[in-house]
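Lecture notes, continued. The same structure-token format from the folding unit now serves as the input rather than the output. Read the line below as a description of shape only.
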């Protein structure tokens, strides 16, 4: 005669123990406690000075709407802008029909003279 051990009560006890263990484990919060410094908000910054350089379809360069006679006049204005401690933002706005050579000349002059806040404006006109 073979005697079988009844494992059902053992399994029941083990399940109860596992459930109790799961219930008693503390819930982990996914956060980090930081001691943030308290202070006054930073002061309001003034609006940046913006200089607009328009390049017309024939290569004519305008500085804030004022036509410049030649490249030397453009470089003089760029040198003045680069010499200021808080440089103005220089926005280059080329016409859609202008040759790239005229735009590249303006950008190269600005880079050579040390203008750091330079950007192209009006790029949406080139999207087909």
């Amino acid at each position: 005669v073979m005697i079988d051990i009844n494992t059902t009560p053992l399994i029941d006890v083990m399940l109860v123990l596992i459930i109790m263990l799961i219930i008693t484990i503390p819930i982990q919060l996914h956060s980090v406690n930081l001691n943030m410094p308290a202070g006054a908000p930073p002061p309001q910054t003034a609006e940046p000075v913006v200089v607009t350089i328009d390049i017309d379809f024939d290569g004519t360069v305008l500085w804030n709407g004022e036509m410049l006679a030649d490249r030397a006049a453009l470089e003089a204005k760029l040198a003045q802008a680069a010499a200021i401690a808080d440089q103005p933002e220089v926005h280059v706005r080329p016409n859609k029909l202008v040759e790239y050579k005229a735009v590249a000349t303006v950008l190269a002059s600005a880079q050579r003279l040390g203008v750091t806040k330079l950007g192209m404006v009006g790029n949406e006109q080139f999207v087909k």
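Point for the exam: Strands lie at 50-55, 61-63, 66-67, 89-94, 118-120.
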